[in-house]
Amino acid sequence: MNHFTENVMRLATRYPDLAASLKAARGQVLTIESARNGSPSARRDGRWIHSAYDPLRDAETWADSHAPACQAGETIVIAGIGLLYHVEALRKKLLPDIAVAVLISDMDEFHDALSARLLGPWSDQILWFSGTPQDIAQTLTATGRPLRCLSYAPASQSEAEFHSDFEQALRRGIARQVGGQLTIALVGPIYGGSLPIAGYVKRALENLGHKVQWIDHSVHARSYDIMGTLNDTRNRQLMQSRMAEVLSQWTLATLAESPPDLVLSLAQAPLTSPVLEHLRKKKFVTAMWFVENYRHLTYWQQMAPGYEFWFVFQQGQCLEAFRQAGARNVSYLPMAADPDVHGPITLADEDRRHYGSDVSFVGAGYANRRRCFPLLLRQPWSFKLWGNEWEGADELQSVLQLNGARIDTATCMKVFNATTINLNLHSTTGAGLDPQADFVNPRTFELAACGAFQLVDHRSLLSEFFTPQEIVSFRSFDEVPGQVKHWLADPSARQAMAAAAQARVMSAHTYVHRMKDLLAQIGLSQPDRIGAVLRGNRRVEALRSRCAADLPLESLLKECPAGRRIELKDLAAQIRSKGPSATLKREELMVLMLDEYRSETRDLV
């Protein structure tokens, strides 16, 4: 009996359908060769999956690096099949109550693995998952166990799309189940386009039931601007840099007052690398949502190792660039809309005349917009241009509103709602459309949320969010006059499309959706910390269930409000509320002692 037959027979006792699929598979995707130590090793597409010298030692090293983080009660999900050396090594290092699941992303590769070497008794303790990424994710999520995802990179690279789809489906599944309350310190920028987004994020997190410590640095914007008026470039940069350092230390001091579960920053938040390193040493979980084009603002290159988690709105080259710069965990998180801000509004006739036009654009005077927009002049429709930084664009002065003043969000909403066709041209330093159109700007979602019709330049990721029946795109600006003429003449189709886009945003693309995804991703990577809180393990009911045999502790928890998250400081506050003359039980005195110790050791700053 050969290895394959014996291995399939072994699997068939627990997984008959999997065994049948293996028999139907062809294999032949791995090239099996003997390593220097005599063990079978493998290559795929000419690339070694396991060591050509000693695949056993290579697997032991991989397992040693991951085993310490695995916690009792978790399910460890492994991406990457290869010849399963790494799976065997990890399984043997873990306690029995830690489950190990393997994703079978390629049945032919699994066929080759079972043909190359004989499975031992360890394989009877493995959960084998095959099928679509979505079905596997749904099954794992339904178990209710904490999940920790590991990747054996040499073997998982060839099935990167499968594993990416699985991770996304798993994250969405976990996001739907989230019920625990986190304390999140939200660090905003001093100024810039990410400042209003910080406000949307704050509202979304609060709507999800989390407690937000809002560290608002925009109150210092005036001082920062005044420093920018210094004529000497060196002095100006020095003073603004020193101010950023002071604000970074201020953030640190604020975090020390009441340490959160998560420190979440928005792009350009004044947190310096030394402060981030200090937070890392103190075991804080830090994350940055970089809501900027990574090619234009490049300070992330120096900051990449500082944050534990990065979230970006570009894929492909962006993700790889962040990893090469030292980012430990980087994930794709696109932009969104805030329905509390971006939505339909009823305008008075005067406002509709003032803010309305057949076509309008809201935004800054980037080079490509200066070059393209003159094509919209002297047309048989009205065109209005709103926004700042249009100095020197003499040809466009006749349509520029408010003398080129920057307009606030409330005014934007009036323009969006009053305009028949909103033009959405992504910025670039070139003369035409963005040649690297690999992100979708916030304006796309905000216009859709308003129920406003828009024409947007083609983006490679647009179809991920909207169908052609919801948003119209153009691949050349020369198409725009014809598109405007067509859609002005068909109001019913225009309104139907805008309504469909609005429904799509409400169902899938709000900041609440994004924050669910962000927290689920962090919880998936931190199942014993952030993940535990999100699963509700710190709620009073869960704590009472876990300490049912400890009557003194259970009696303390009985006094806590139902449905609340309970921490040591909460129990201590509850005990202190009894007053200084109260006679305390032994367990109450111990809680107060522990809380005092916690307070005395807060040496964060």
What does this structure look like?
- By secondary structure, the protein is an alpha/beta fold.
- The chain contains 26 helices and 18 strands.
- A 6-stranded parallel beta sheet has the order 9-8-10-11-12-13, sandwiched between helices. A 5-stranded parallel beta sheet has the order 15-14-16-17-18, with helices on both faces. The protein has a 4-stranded parallel beta sheet with strand order 6-5-4-7.
- It starts with a helix and ends in a 5-residue tail after the last helix.
Provide a brief overview of the structure.
The protein is α/β, with parallel strands linked by helices and 605 residues long.
Strand content: 5-15%
CATH architectural group of the largest domain? Alpha-Beta Complex
* End-to-end C-alpha gap: 66 Å
Task: Work out the helicity level.
Answer: 40-55%
Number of domains: 4
Low-confidence stretches are none
Oligomer description: single chain
Question: C-alpha Rg, in Å?
Answer: 28 Å
Major pleated sheet = 6 strands, parallel
Q: Trace the largest sheet across and list its strands.
A: 9-8-10-11-12-13
Q: Report the mean per-residue pLDDT as an integer.
A: 91
Task: Give the structural class.
Answer: alpha/beta
- What best-fitting shape do the alpha-carbon axes yield? globular
Number of strands: 18
CATH topology of the largest domain: Protein-Tyrosine Phosphatase, Chain A
* Tally of individual helices: 26
Secondary-structure blueprint:
Layout: H1 3-12, H2 16-24, E1 31-34, E2 40-44, E3 47-48, H3 55-66, E4 75-79, H4 85-93, E5 99-104, H5 107-116, E6 126-130, H6 133-142, E7 147-151, H7 153-156, H8 160-177, E8 183-187, H9 194-207, E9 211-215, H10 221-227, H11 233-257, E10 262-266, H12 273-281, E11 286-290, H13 300-303, E12 309-312, H14 317-324, E13 330-332, H15 349-355, E14 359-362, H16 367-372, E15 383-386, H17 409-418, E16 421-424, H18 442-449, E17 454-457, E18 472-474, H19 480-488, H20 491-508, H21 511-525, H22 530-534, H23 540-546, H24 551-558, H25 568-576, H26 586-600
Parallel strand pairs: 4-5, 4-7, 5-6, 8-9, 8-10, 10-11, 11-12, 12-13, 14-15, 14-16, 16-17, 17-18
Antiparallel strand pairs: 1-2, 2-3
Helix pairs in contact: 1-2, 1-5, 3-4, 6-8, 8-21, 9-21, 15-17, 18-20, 25-26
